[in-house]
């Protein structure tokens, strides 16, 4: 590897490369630590190699020692990351960060620098994705498989520099075997650089967290343009600036952005609920989907004296919570349209569905052969009631599965060992209150902060149903008598 290698060997890569491989104490970016780093630098001056063991300051699991051959004794006298951070940075600065499964290696490196208070932002290239793009005829693209497929000589597998060399050799083989335009296209799909809005300070991007939360786009005079949520705020924000993915309206919005702020949350549920509340309270210019509605309507069925079920459209605030509710609608008209649309295929009577009037002869639906004949004695009340229940079945709201209020606890384990949480007080799909803290959730604080005027909300209902019935990640449900008898 002593011969100079010019950048033009790798079409589409217009800057020097740092091909990196790490060995670590495990697979968790936030919990585990780096034990070894190997870097192959490639630029117009040639190819250079660098490697060092790193003292992770934690024991290396036996399974990892068996895989890598790196033992606690080997790293005992090795430098700590902060002692070699400057050397590592000098080898990465201004280069494209290349790795096999780059998300793993770059995540560890970026997190290690973040611990030192130094934000790292490099262009990345994943050779796993590159292999899949260039060799779609193969099903497996692990480094082990690639080494065997190309006959790459490796002296020590699962050692950082040896694996970085193997990754470099794969790049060389792929660049020589594949058409240069195909290679360039595969590279540029990964390394395309979004164009930041002209009025936005690029340094703002580095301040955005890479975890869950809500982000805010501001225009001139601090006018709020847009509110969004994501499980990775920085990544989601950058996706707004990829012009090939944006609509004309989205691109117009991006051109107006002057500042971006973010509010981190403990998880996805918190982000969803916060986004919904912020959009409805602040009414950003470019958000249209989650407008606040002063009144929601639903459909309920009431049985008349003649044992006939009749649908009634009422405000949700007036609904009988002991009866099933069918749908949440922004207006009476939309509720009526949904009722008719769902009822017609079941042959239901217009006197019940459309006009809600006394049955006094054939309805219009029967005259055009749409009604099965409740109004003419051809269809019994029992049959009509059963058909009506079937017709509205898909509109039915989920029944509240508890006897009273419950607490939804969303946890986030932080690097410092603290267990951050957000607790939500929920009853009948209504959000009564929330509380953020650390350690064991304080339910009394949650109870004290409850909003007894809280009403059912269409968007929150959807999010909460998913959290309760689909076991949202990192969310647990607490049911205690303290909550039950509020």
From TrEMBL:
<dbReference type="InterPro" id="IPR047296">
    <property type="entry name" value="GIY-YIG_UvrC_Cho"/>
</dbReference>
<dbReference type="GO" id="GO:0008408">
    <property type="term" value="F:3'-5' exonuclease activity"/>
</dbReference>
<dbReference type="Pfam" id="PF00929">
    <property type="entry name" value="RNase_T"/>
</dbReference>
<keyword id="KW-0540">Nuclease</keyword>
<dbReference type="GO" id="GO:0003887">
    <property type="term" value="F:DNA-directed DNA polymerase activity"/>
</dbReference>
<keyword id="KW-0269">Exonuclease</keyword>
<feature type="domain" description="GIY-YIG">
    <location>
        <begin position="210"/>
        <end position="288"/>
    </location>
</feature>
<dbReference type="InterPro" id="IPR000305">
    <property type="entry name" value="GIY-YIG_endonuc"/>
</dbReference>
<dbReference type="InterPro" id="IPR035901">
    <property type="entry name" value="GIY-YIG_endonuc_sf"/>
</dbReference>
<dbReference type="Pfam" id="PF01541">
    <property type="entry name" value="GIY-YIG"/>
</dbReference>
<dbReference type="InterPro" id="IPR013520">
    <property type="entry name" value="Ribonucl_H"/>
</dbReference>
<comment type="subunit">
    <text>DNA polymerase III contains a core (composed of alpha, epsilon and theta chains) that associates with a tau subunit. This core dimerizes to form the POLIII' complex. PolIII' associates with the gamma complex (composed of gamma, delta, delta', psi and chi chains) and with the beta chain to form the complete DNA polymerase III complex.</text>
</comment>
<dbReference type="GO" id="GO:0003677">
    <property type="term" value="F:DNA binding"/>
</dbReference>
<comment type="function">
    <text>DNA polymerase III is a complex, multichain enzyme responsible for most of the replicative synthesis in bacteria. The epsilon subunit contain the editing function and is a proofreading 3'-5' exonuclease.</text>
</comment>
<protein>
    <recommendedName>
        <fullName>DNA-directed DNA polymerase</fullName>
        <ecNumber>2.7.7.7</ecNumber>
    </recommendedName>
</protein>
<keyword id="KW-0378">Hydrolase</keyword>
<dbReference type="InterPro" id="IPR012337">
    <property type="entry name" value="RNaseH-like_sf"/>
</dbReference>
<dbReference type="GO" id="GO:0045004">
    <property type="term" value="P:DNA replication proofreading"/>
</dbReference>
<dbReference type="InterPro" id="IPR006054">
    <property type="entry name" value="DnaQ"/>
</dbReference>
<dbReference type="GO" id="GO:0005829">
    <property type="term" value="C:cytosol"/>
</dbReference>
<dbReference type="InterPro" id="IPR036397">
    <property type="entry name" value="RNaseH_sf"/>
</dbReference>
<dbReference type="GO" id="GO:0006289">
    <property type="term" value="P:nucleotide-excision repair"/>
</dbReference>
